[in-house]
Amino acid sequence: MKIVVLVKHVPDAAADRGFNESDHTTDRAGVDGILSELDEYAVEEALKLSDSGEADVIAVTMGPDGALDAIKRSLQMGAASGVHVVDDALHGSDAVATSKVLAAAISKLGDVNLVLTGMASTDGGMSVVPAMLAERLGFAHIGFVGELGFADGKVSARRDADVTETVEASLPAVVSVTDQINEPRYPSFKGIMAAKKKPVETWSLADLGVDAGSVGLSAAWSVVEAVTARPERTQGEIVTDEGDGGVKVAEYLAGQKFI
User: Fold this and answer.
1) Poorest-pLDDT segment among 20-34, 79-93, 127-141
2) Closest Cα to residue 9, out of 74, 91, 83, 67?
3) 241: exposed, middle or buried (Cβ count in 10 Å: 0-12, 13-18, 19+)
């Protein structure tokens, strides 16, 4: 089985994240980046299949030079190889363009049985790319999966929401997983050293046959027009309870139109 796991290099949530002043796109150069936390669950699920001898895991990412770190982390965890799609024309791409480029990369790899993703990226949080990707590839799609199984060329998945349901689809398929599915492993020293020798290919839009005019900020269906920093939190009002604390709290809530 050939598994592609999609990974994304995102600004560290613990850092002071911001936007580029020139075009209001996410500032990825001025802040430390990490492998999106939710993608680690997808990597782990792929590696569980690889550990059982049933899968070859390829980590694929799209982004600027720094995005290579997401591939490196995946290789350190145990992925066999990586593909980094990098091109200046990709700057500012929206979800529609992202799904187009990733679909082209997966098609170029060929004979892919399963595409695993996190349920969302921690910088965008849209959760739409997996479904778009499946549509472009003509693959089945199952999202928000908490448990995964395979048998007879089919994938079965449990999803937990207001109700618990089990969904089955024929391979090939695109599956996005939640943070309930497993506990991602930490790279071992052996894994870190082994990752340095694993192959990583770098592809441009030309390599994928994707028109540069169809991606990037100029082709985005939506753009950020203005950015305003969130005001710093101020100290709240302290209410001293002198027997009428409940009344004062109710008056405050009513004044704020909460009740």
Assistant:
1) 20-34
2) 67
3) exposed
Domain spans of the chain, in order of start: 2-219
Q: What is the DSSP string of 32-93?
A: -EEE-HHHHHHHHHHHHHHHTT--EEEEEEESSGGGHHHHHHHHHHT-SEEEEE--GGGTT-
| CA atoms within 13 A of residue 217's CA, in its CB half-sphere | 12
Q: Phi and psi at residue 167, in whole multiples of 5°? A: -120, 140
Long-range contacts of 123-128 (CB under 8 A, 24+ apart): 123/8, 123/10, 123/11, 123/17, 123/26, 123/36, 124/95, 126/95, 127/176, 128/95
- What superfamily would CATH give domain 2-219? HUPs (3.40.50.620)
Query: How far apart are alpha carbons 167 and 3 in whole angstroms?
Result: 20
Q: What is the distance between the alpha carbons of residues 34 and 67, in angstroms, rounded to a whole number? A: 9
What is the C-alpha separation between 222 and 89, in angstroms, rounded? Answer: 17
pLDDT digits (tens, 9 = 90+) for 7-25: 999 988 777 777 778 888 8
Entry pTM? 0.86
Please list, residue by residue across 51-84, b when 16 or more beta carbons sit within 10 angstroms of its beta carbon and e when fewer do: eeeebebbbbbbbbeebbbbbbbbbbbbbbbbbb
Q: For 87-118, what is each residue's pLDDT tens digit? A: 999 999 999 999 999 999 999 999 999 999 99
